[in-house]
Amino acid sequence: MPTYILLCNWTQQGIQNIKDSPSRLVKAKELVKANGGQIKDFYMTMGQYDMVITVQAPNDETLAKSMLAIASAGGVRSQTLRAFPEGEYKEIIGGLP
Question: I need a labelling partner for 85 at 20 to 30 A (CA). Which of 3, 13, 70, 93 fits?
Fold first, then answer.
């Protein structure tokens, strides 16, 4: 399954209701799982982003659907990066002319 890295920030609404964040994370995990994916890792971070999350999903469309549903709740905004693990990276590089 493809892997994605999500760089997330709390919105004003999300930070005002920060104590609800753990329960929102549980709901997000359930939503992603219901769509056939899995939140693999979650980190609260310091710096430019408030959270870094790794997710596996069957395809881009599935992840987009999940992230749009999560974002529509108003607590977070995210940037999504498609991540290629080492094995896929080597295949891509190995296929170069």
Answer: 70
Two structure tokens written together for 50: 């408030």
Which CATH number applies to 3-94: 2.10.109.10, 3.90.950.10, 3.40.30.10, 3.30.70.920? Answer: 3.30.70.920
For residue range 12-35, what is the model confidence (pLDDT) as tens digits? 999 999 999 999 999 999 999 999
For residue 88, what pLDDT is reported?
Answer: 95
Q: Are residues 12 and 74 in contact, defined by beta-carbon separation less than 8 angstroms? A: no
For residue 51, the surrounding DSSP H or E stretch is strand 51-56
The structural domains of the chain, with segments of one domain joined by +, span: 3-94
